[in-house]
Design goal:
By secondary structure, the protein is mainly beta. The protein contains no helices and 31 strands.
C-alpha cells in the first residue's frame, strides 16, 4: 500500500552503489499517512548491513531487510506530542528507542524502550534522570549509546541557545534501572569507545574536543597538532576500532581542507596523517566512518567524494551529480550505503 503526502522540504533516502548514486526514495510499504497531509520528516536513519537498516519518520520506525525494497514498521507505541531523541540497534534484533515528552512546566520526561526481537515486542519504562523542576531537564536534544544490554549512556544537551553547549551525562550498568550522573563540557556529539573512555565534541563552533577516561566523571580538553592557523575548524566525533582511533576535521581559511588524525597511544596526541584540499568552502560534511582506516565523506553542494581506503586518502568525483544534495551519510561498506538528500522544492511525493 502506498500513500501520498505534501512535503515542503522533501527528504530523500539515497542508495549508493559504487558511487553511482541511485535514488530509491523513502518507500516503506506500511507508512502511516498524516490525516492533515502535514509534512513528514526523515529524522534519522542507520544502515547496519548492505541489506538491512532502519529509518525514523516522525514518530514511526521502519525496518528493511532487502535494501529498501520493502519496509515494516517495528517501533513501539509513542504518544502524540512525543519527540524521539535517538534510536540505536546493535544488531538485527537488539535495539533501543529514547523519547521525551514535555510536562506542565516544559521540562522533559524521558522514556526508554528496548527490544530483543527486532521490534516484535518492546519493554518501555520511565527514566527518573532529573529532579522535578530542575532547569537542566529543559532538553534541546539527547543521545544514547549501548555496549551491551546492561551497559550504556545517555547525554542530554540543555536548551540554552546556540552560544552554549551545556549538558549532563548519565551512565548505567544495569540495563537502565539506575543511572550515574556527571557534567559534560560540551554536548553536541558524544562517543565512547568503551564504558570508561570516550570523547565529547562540540561548542558554539563545533571546534572543541574533550576526552574522559573515567566514564565521564572528569574531562580534559585535547587539541590535535598542526591545525592550520587562522582557520575555522569543525571537528567530527572520533572513531575507535581494533586498537586504533581516527579523527576527521575540516578547516576553512585561506585554503579549505579535510584533515585526518590518528591517536598515538605512546604520546597520547592526535597527529596528522593525511589532508585533502577541498574545492569549495564548506561547513558540515556528510561523513561515515567504517573503521580507523576506512571512511567516506561527501561535501554538500559539490560532486566531491572523499574516501579513505586502508589508510590512504583519495578524492573522487560523483558522475551523476546526485551526491551534491546529500547532507547525511551512513555506509555499510566503502561502496554501499545510504545518504539523506534535501530537495527544497514543494511537490507531491510517494512515500
Amino acid at each position: 500500500m502506498r500513500f501520498h503526502v505534501l512535503i515542503r522540504q522533501l527528504s530523500r533516502l539515497v542508495f549508493a552503489l559504487s558511487f553511482a548514486i541511485i535514488v530509491f526514495g523513502i518507500s516503506p510499504s506500511t507508512f502511516v499517512q498524516a490525516q492533515d497531509e502535514s509534512p513528514v520528516n526523515l529524522f534519522r536513519f542507520d544502515v547496519l548491513t548492505t541489506n538491512s537498516g532502519w529509518i525514523l519518520l516522525e514518530r514511526h520506525l521502519f525496518w528493511t531487510s532487502n535494501a529498501g525494497q520493502t519496509w515494516e514498521e517495528i517501533g513501539p507505541s509513542i504518544p502524540l506530542g512525543a519527540l524521539v531523541q535517538d534510536v540505536e540497534f546493535k544488531d538485527a534484533n537488539t535495539g533501543w528507542l529514547l523519547w521525551t515528552t514535555a510536562n506542565f512546566d516544559g521540562n522533559a520526561e524521558f522514556q526508554l524502550a528496548h527490544t530483543t526481537d527486532i521490534g516484535i515486542t518492546w519493554t518501555t519504562h520511565s527514566l527518573s534522570l532529573f529532579e522535578p523542576g530542575e532547569i537542566a531537564s529543559k532538553a534541546e536534544k539527547a543521545e544514547m549509546g549501548w555496549f551491551d544490554p546492561q551497559t550504556g549512556w545517555i547525554s542530554v544537551k540543555q536548551n540554552t541557545g546556540s552560544n552554549f553547549s551545556l549538558g549532563v551525562l548519565f551512565t548505567t550498568s544495569d540495563g537502565g534501572n539506575t543511572w550515574s550522573r556527571s557534567n559534560l563540557p560540551v554536548t553536541d556529539n558524544i562517543y565512547f569507545r568503551d564504558p570508561q573512555n570516550g570523547w565529547a565534541v562540540g561548542g558554539p563552533a563545533n571546534d572543541q574536543l574533550f576526552e574522559t577516561r573515567d566514564a565521564g566523571v572528569s574531562w580534559e580538553k585535547v587539541q590535535p597538532v598542526a591545525i592550520p592557523e587562522d582557520s575555522q575548524t569543525v571537528i567530527y566525533s572520533p572513531f575507535f576500532s581494533d586498537g586504533q582511533s581516527l579523527l576527521v576535521m575540516t578547516s576553512l581559511g585561506e585554503a579549505t581542507s579535510l584533515n585526518v588524525y590518528t591517536l598515538q597511544n605512546s604520546s597520547d596526541e592526535w597527529l596528522s596523517t593525511g589532508q585533502i584540499k577541498l574545492d569549495a568552502q564548506t561547513g558540515n560534511i556528510g561523513l561515515s566512518i567504517l573503521d580507523a582506516e576506512n571512511f567516506v565523506a561527501i561535501v554538500p553542494g559539490t560532486k566531491s567524494i572523499m574516501r579513505m581506503t586502508d589508510g590512504e586518502l583519495n578524492l573522487l568525483e560523483n558522475k551523476d551529480g546526485l551526491a551534491a544534495s546529500i547532507v547525511e551519510l551512513d555506509m555499510a561498506s566503502l561502496d554501499v550505503g545510504w545518504g539523506k538528500s534535501i530537495d527544497a522544492s514543494c511537490i507531491t511525493a510517494s512515500v
